[in-house]
Amino acid sequence: MRALLAAALVGVLGAGGAGAATKACNQGAQTLTPAPITTAAPTPTPDVLQARAAPAVAFQAVNTAGTATVEIQICCTGPCDATGAWAQVENSPMTLTVSTAAKAVANPTCLYRGNVTACTGCSVTVAYACAGP
Fold first, then answer.
1. Is the separation of the CB atoms in 23 and 48 below 8 Å?
2. Furthest-apart CA atoms within the chain: distance in Å
3. Hey, how many other C-beta atoms are within 10 angstroms of the C-beta on 121?
């Protein structure tokens, strides 16, 4: 029953733009950026995370060139696509030179993505890992 409810929720909310994948909490670190984001225009990660059963999730932004600002965003009201109602997770903007930063979310609900809101010669990858078994 729980799986059916979750599947219905994803159908209502949507899951990113064309070619985007909705990812679940698996063991080990996963990425929301199949390839690094390098564009100066605000760019969300191609993939989104649905962490419905995890007690917590950690996001890590890695920038290997230039400077970037990355924020973690949440969407609970559909459609959760490129034009959807994405909102910033509180205290999530991470300003990165050639560095790494992280943000954790306890009791995650809805869908999450990373959004590179500023980039000067950047090369950003956003990863996540979920707590739990």
1. yes
2. 47
3. 11
Q: Which two tokens stand for residue 31?
A: 């990425």
Instruction: Break the chain into its structural domains and give their ranges.
Output: 2-130
Q: How confident is the model at residue 75 (pLDDT cuts 50, 70, 90)?
A: very high
Q: What is the mean pLDDT of the chain?
A: 84
Tokens coding 131: 């707590």
Q: What is the pTM of this model?
A: 0.82
Of 124, 116, 103, 24, give the one whose Cα is nearest residue 58: 103
For range 83-105, the mean pLDDT: 94
State the pLDDT at residue 102: 96
Pull the structure tokens for residue 61.
């932004």
Q: Computed from CA positions of residues 111, 15, 114, 126, in that sequence, does the dihedral angle turn out positive or negative?
A: positive
* Backbone phi and psi for residue 85, each to the nearest 5 degrees, phi listed first: -90, 65
CATH level 3 topology of 2-130: Jelly Rolls (2.60.120)
